[in-house]
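Exercise: predict the structure of this protein bound to aspartic acid.
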Amino acid sequence: MKKTLLACVAAFSVGAAWADYPEKPLTIVVPFAAGGPTDKVARDLAEALRKPLNATIVIENVGGAGGTLGATKVSKASPDGYTLLLHHIGMATSPALYRNLQYKTLDDFEYLGLINEVPMTLIARPSLPANNYAEFLKWIESNKGKINLANAGLGSASHLCGLIYQSTLKVDMTTVPYKGTGPAMTDLIGGQVDFMCDQTTNTTSQIDTGKVKAYAVTTTKRLGGNLAKLPTLEESGMKGFNVTIWHGLYAPKNTPKPVLEKINTALKTALKDADFRKREEALGAVIVTDGRVNPAEHKKFVEAEINKWGPVIKAAGQYAE
Ligand code: ASP
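Solution:
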């Protein structure tokens, strides 16, 4: 009886201690450089979260090592709800790619909900002579050994897509890693690298304005709007090629439950925000509305993605120390 009473008092004081959360600005760590697709969704989301969370939100870009540096930082941050991580599919691909990952994907984070899903496009420097996918394949054939492929480091979405692309084609290319596809895009437009695979949230306007060439999309269905003219890789002969990127929100393990609940409730409100949806959907992102906006299903989904991509990556024979 006494014990139950003490437990109730303890639970009440933990809840009460966090009743006023948030009392200061929050930081969302983006594990890639500013100006790229993950930065874009984080800034859009921060805008939509500000009101329901009633807090100022600061974005901190911690790029490098395919997103693992930023994820490591958040896994070791104080579990007080003031440091969050917005990360993508790299949460699920990094365990297979890094032998010495400094965190355990499923054990060291609290899962807060999935945010969006984003298709990718195969894009090239504007000076590349190929004008469609068939010509691009011919160009690859006659330039073997000289081709540069940009990505955002081992474990990034652009890396995953490029890895599967190269192993399906059975052509080795030189990969050029950046801290994010924001800076990679600058070099692609400038002609320093030949091509890359990147999310529509970062490529749509560059394609529309002719700053880069676009050859294909990575989903099994064609996209809408101006990108509808691009063939899927599957219809271009790569059977089963299907890469869609997703983003989710995380907190360090052991963040108090009342705080997690407040963030999840605010996240659900933000995902319904009309401006947020409009901005994301205009660039080809699909906002998550199903059960994966809940922590348990988000975690289950990431676990399934680890099991899906691990064997694919291992078969391609890639890993880092
Ligand atoms: N999401 C990365 C970025 O924002 C790009 C990638 O993963 O390929 O730069």
